[in-house]
Amino acid sequence: MKPGNLRKRGAKSSISFHEMKDNLKQTHFHLVKMSFFIEREGVNMPKTYQEINEKIARGEAVIVTAEEVIDIVKERGTKEAAEYVDVVTTATFGPMCSSGAFLNFGHADPPIRMAEIELNNVEAYGGLAAVDTYIGATQPSSDKGAEYGGAHVICDLIDGKEVHLHATSPGTDCYPRKEIDTWVGLKDMNEAYLYNPRNCYQNYNAAINTSKKRIYTYMGILHPNMGNITYSTAGALSPLLNDPLYKTIGMGTRIFLAGAQGYVSWMGTQFNSGGARDDKGYPLGGAGTLAVMGEMREMNTKYIQPAVFERYGVSMFVGIGIPIPILDEEMMQFVSVTDAELHTNIMDYSDKDRPVIKKVSYAELRSGSVEIDGKKIRTSPLSSLTKARTIADELTGWIKKGEFFLQEPVMKFPVNNTLNSLKIKEGGNK
C-alpha cells in the first residue's frame, strides 16, 4: 500500500502521509507546551546534577551565596527562585581540632621502618607502614609545648617550608636503618593530603561561665559571672545548616577545602544527626559533622591557619566551602534560611553537666549582646564570618568559570544517628 492510500480503519475518508506528518508535528508541539506548563505552572520538576553541570560548562548556571539567595527568595518567592538559581554556595572558617595530615616520605637508602617520628619536634604517628605517618593538628611540640604543634607543621608545609624530620626504628632485616635525621618539604614527599576526621559541625552550642572564676576552654576564655558568651558557627552561611537533612551533602561531595578542591570522605566522628531539631528540621545541637580530605600541595594558608587557645592547646582554623545544587523547591526552602530562624543553646561551661542557660538565635548572637536575667552579655564569635564570605565568593567564582563541577554523593548520610558515651568499666581484665 502506498503512503498516499493509507486509510483509517472504519473511516469513510482517507488521510494522506503528509497530513499524518503535520498531525504528528502538532501533537509534538502541544506535548512540549504541556510539558512547559506542567514544569512552570503545576508540578515541581526537579533538576539533576547532570543538567546543572551542563549549564556550568556552558557558562549559563546561576550561582549565588547562601546570604545572597535570601533576598532572591524574598523578591521572587521560593518556587520561582528554585527555577532561577542552580547552585548556592556555603562556607565556614573556624577552629576544627579534629584535623591532620597523612604524609609519605619515600624510602631512604638504606631504608628505615619509622617507629618514632617527629616533625619540627612534634610527634607524628608511627604505627603505619614504613614511611607513612599521620600528624594531628592538636599535637604539641616537645620543646615549645602548645605554642607550636601539628597545625603549625601542616601550615608550614603548605607554605612551602621544609620541616625537620627525625625518626628512629629498632631495625629489621629488611629495614636495617635505625635512625634518620633530615629536612623535608611537600616537594620531597610522594603523598601529602589533609584528612580531617571531624570538621564542619552542623551547629554548635554557645558557651558561658556562671562561676566566680575565669575558665579556659576550646571555646576561648570565658569570664566569670556570665561575663561573656562565645559561639562558633557561620549561621545562615554554614554548609550543613543549609542542607539540614543531608539531601545533597554526602560521601563523595566535592568541596572547597583550604583553598583546594577536596571531598567529603565519610560522616565525621561524633555524627549525632538524631539529636533535637526544630519543626523545620534544623538541629538545635551539634548534629552532623563531615570527614574531609584534599591535596595539601594545592592549599593556601589564607584558608587554613594554626591557632593556640590559652591554657587549652593547639587547634587549626580550616576553611570549607560546599556548593548546594538547587534540585527542587525543598532545597531552596532550606538554603534561604536566615540567622533569625536558626537557633542554638547557650551552655554553662563551668558545670560538668553543661546545663542550658538560654536558647537563642544566631541573629541575637550576631547582634553583639544577649540578655540573660536582665543583664546584657557581650557575645563574640570564634569563627570568622568575613573569611567564610570570602570562601563562598571564591567558590562561586570557580563554578562560574567552569573550574569546579558538582559531584553527586555516592552515599547519603543517616538522619537518625546517635552517640555513645565512654563508660568506665572497673574490675580487672575483661
UniProtKB/TrEMBL annotation:
Pfam families listed in its UniProt record: HcyBio
What range(s) does the Homocysteine biosynthesis enzyme sulfur-incorporation domain occupy? 61-406
Protein's UniProt name: Homocysteine biosynthesis enzyme sulfur-incorporation domain-containing protein
Species source reads Eubacterium callanderi
List the top taxonomic levels of the source. Answer: Bacteria, Bacillati, Bacillota, Clostridia, Eubacteriales
